[in-house]
């Protein structure tokens, strides 16, 4: 889970959602970087295909 929320809020939301991989306190550009890295690691497209 990637969020700009603080640690306490992020951990509470992650617990409710059943997520254990959390990154909190991120700025928007940090989220973009993280998504790109995760997509590369999973060999997925970085963006949804356009129609």
What order do the helices and strands come in, and which of them pair?
Layout: H1 7-17, H2 28-42
What's the quick description here?
The chain has one domain (7-42). It has 2 helices and no strands. It has helices at residues 7-17, 28-42.
Structural features, described:
- There is one protein chain.
- The protein has 51 residues and is mainly α.
- The protein has one domain.
- 51% of the residues lie in helices and 0% in strands.
- It is built from two helices and no strands.
- The mean pLDDT is 89.
Radius of gyration: 13 Å
Largest sheet: none
Helix content: 40-55%
* Spans where pLDDT lies below 50 across 5 or more residues: none
Q: Write down the domain tally.
A: 1
Q: From the helix content, strand content and strand pairing, which structural class follows?
A: mainly alpha
Helix count?
A: 2
The string of secondary-structure elements, in order, is HH
Mean pLDDT: 89
N-end to C-end Cα span = 27 Å
The rough form would be described as: flat
Strand content: under 5%
**Tally of strands:** 0
Q: Which terms summarize this structure?
A:
single chain; 51 residues; mainly alpha; 2 helices; 51% helix; 0% strand; flat
């Amino acid at each position: 889970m990637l969020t700009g929320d603080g640690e306490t809020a992020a951990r509470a939301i992650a617990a409710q959602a059943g997520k254990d991989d959390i990154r909190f306190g991120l700025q928007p550009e940090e989220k973009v970087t993280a998504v790109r890295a995760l997509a590369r690691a999973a060999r997925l497209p970085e963006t949804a295909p356009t129609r």
